[in-house]
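Project standup — Tuesday

K.O.: blocked on the structure for the chain from last sprint. Re-posting the sequence here as requested.
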Amino acid sequence: MEPTAPSPTHIDAIVDKLCSLDDMHHVCPERRHEGQPVLSNQSVERIVQLASGLLFPGFFNDSIESPSVLRSMLTLACHELRNLLIHQITACFCFADTSCSTPLRDINQRAEAASDKFISLLPDLRRTLDTDIDATYLGDPAATSTHEVLVCYPGLRATISYRIAHSLLKLGVPILPRMISELAHSATGIDIHPGAEIGEGFLIDHGTGVVIGATAIIGNNVKLYQGVTLGARSFVTDDSNNPVKGIPRHPIIGDDVVIYSNTTILGRVTIGRGAVIGGNLWVARDVAPGEKLVQARADNFRSSIS
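H.V.: unblocked you, prediction finished:
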């Protein structure tokens, strides 16, 4: 039996309620007449694709036939990236301006400046990512080439997205960095907050289930395996029992540290340079430089309780 179609009058009544400004707590309809752009995950995905293709031509875009074609291709990609960034960063600034008090023209100018600055950072971003690619290739015996690392490894894919998102966050762009991180999270199972500070030569091996919190600080040449969490132990709350924002609460990981699979490190603890943290551990204290933490051997455990 076919369902009965709702009457136009019923639909009109529902739409009237949905259009009620009194019920719109998380949008700003006052800007609609100005042509305010809207946040779009599809556009953000394209931004990451374009930026990745500019960083590594031929890997995340069409093949390159000649140097002249390369220049033309990258020029077109740069223009498309700039236009998309301006549009989405404008939407992010509008989204963050809950009072809707800043003129849209001023917001658009801020978005243009941030977009141009980000594009100017791409050569430095590539240099840093090159160290991540080399670390991944050298750190995984199964990797046959840096090209394989670049196109196949989810840890490297998540790191590219993180470095793009982190650069935008440092430029003062709201919302967009987190959208980029969450798209990478959905694609790879790796959750890196764009606010984390991560040094060069970063390697995530296998990667699924890795979580890196917003205030984590990671040094150079650090290697993480799957399931590692760099998280927070607790939250400081205000008088209304709401979490206080912006307080450092995640670990500090020194240079040349290795953390094996399914280990959880919580709180503002420091893992010293060259430390090795074994798998399946729960760490909530500082670890000295060069220290090695491993689970107790089963025979030692049995003798301690016999």
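K.O.: great, moving the ticket to review. The radius of gyration is 24 Å. The CA atoms of residues 298 and 304 lie 10 Å apart.
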